[in-house]
Amino acid sequence: QKEVEQNSGPLSVPEGAIASLNCTYSDRGSQSFFWYRQYSGKSPELIMSIYSNGDKEDGRFTAQLNKASQYVSLLIRDSQPSDSATYLCAGGVQGAQKLVFGQGTRLTINP
Amino acid sequence: SAVISQKPSRDICQRGTSLTIQCQVDSQVTMMFWYRQQPGQSLTLIATANQGSEATYESGFVIDKFPISRPNLTFSTLTVSNMSPEDSSIYLCSAQRGNTEAFFGQGTRLTVV
User: Fold this and answer.
1) Would you call A35 an interface residue with chain B, using a CB distance cutoff of 8 Å?
2) Chain B within 8 Å of A91 (Cβ-Cβ)?
3) CA angle A103, A47, B7 (to 5 degrees)
4) Parallel, antiparallel, or unpaired: how do β-strands A11-14 and A19-25 relate?
5) How many of the other CB atoms lie within 10 Å of CB of B28?
């Protein structure tokens, strides 16, 4: 069973601080990883994708991938109340064109 | 990216009846999937909708309960058959081009009474 694990939270961060979200995965063959943001009552929207070891930055968001340790993280700098949402980590399944999702981390940014 | 239109957005159905959910993508995609999301939970993959052939179901999901069609590269339907209150959930369609990021429809909130 391919698994993606996240701390379900809730994670509470003051406005302006850095929010750090973490995810581990069991499938060593996974080559692609994604972070989705889901507001309550809405469908998931893609925030970041990462395929190579290291960091990938996009605006206030940085995704980090460490394949040796099998973890993926998402950093949100200068957190805003509008960042309050559930963040889902997903990994591609080796040999199959489908994704496995973690249980999601609920993030709250406090003004 | 891809724009995905899913309908209906919500429905309230009587137990024992069936509901068909439609998913339309604005461009051709390789893969289409159907997920279920219980309140406060993550996404559970129901099946992969294969164009021109039978869908591939995940463990715990069967074709008789969740028949799926995919007549072409932009359209798919999921039917929830013989519904019971336990089927109340959000159903999500997603699309991918190859082994890349998935994009989601807006979801269908189903309540079975």
Assistant:
1) no
2) no
3) 75
4) unpaired
5) 12
For residue A75, which phi and psi values (nearest 5 degrees)? -110, 135
pLDDT of A60-107, one tens digit each? 999 999 999 999 999 999 999 999 999 999 998 877 788 999 999 999
Distances (CA, A) of B95 to A62, A107, B1, B37: 25, 26, 9, 16
Q: Which is nearest to A107 in space by CA: A31, A37, A43, A4? A: A37
> CB of A94 within 8 Å of any CB in chain B?
no
Name the pLDDT band for A1 (thresholds 50, 70, 90). low
Q: Do B104 and A44 touch (CB under 8 A)?
A: yes
Residue in the block written with tokens 């179901």: B57
Instruction: State pLDDT tens for residues B63-84.
Output: 999 999 999 999 999 999 999 9
Which tens digit of pLDDT belongs to each residue from A22-33? 999 998 888 899
CA A27 – CA A18 distance, rounded (Å): 28
| Block residue for tokens 């069991």 | A26
Query: How many other CB atoms sit within 10 Å of the CB of residue B19?
Result: 18
- Which pLDDT does position A2 carry in this prediction? 67
Measured distance CA(A101)–CA(A27) in Å, rounded: 12
β-bridge mates for residue A19, sequence order: A76
Question: In B26-80, where do the E strands start and end?
Answer: 31-37, 43-49, 56-57, 68-72, 75-80
